[in-house]
Write a structure and sequence with these properties.
The protein is mostly beta strands. Helices cover about 0% and strands about 45% of the residues. A hairpin with an 8-residue loop joins strand 1 and strand 2. The radius of gyration is 17 Å and the shape is elongated. The structure holds zinc ion.
């Protein structure tokens, strides 16, 4: 998985194509990511107490990892990620501008 929680990504498919948002959740088993403000779904909430009204809340639904591309914080473009070994640690770098992500 090259995308991590907190990354800035751009939606490539679906109704929110072209939008960017922060990754809220990554599921490595199902290869799905949840992006802030993207792929929103309406959830109808029932009233919990008497006299209270039910409401419609918007919650972001997960999307397949292939539907998003990471946005480099340095060059602000969508980019592929390359890994570079820096001493003992592996560093993610932008394939376009070589900045560490
Ligand atoms: Zn870059």
């Amino acid at each position: 998985m090259h995308i991590r929680k907190g990354d800035n990504v751009k939606m490539l498919a679906g109704k929110d194509r072209g939008k960017t948002g922060k990754v809220l959740h990554v599921d490595t088993k199902t290869l799905r990511v949840t992006v802030e403000g993207c792929n929103m779904a309406k959830r109808h909430m029932r009233p919990k107490k008497q006299g209270e009204k039910g409401e419609i809340v918007l919650i972001p639904r997960s999307t397949n990892i292939s539907n998003v591309a990471i946005v480099c914080g340095n060059c602000k473009k969508t980019a592929r990620i390359q890994y570079r070994v820096d001493g003992k640690s592996k560093v993610r770098v932008c394939a376009k501008c070589d900045a560490a992500l």
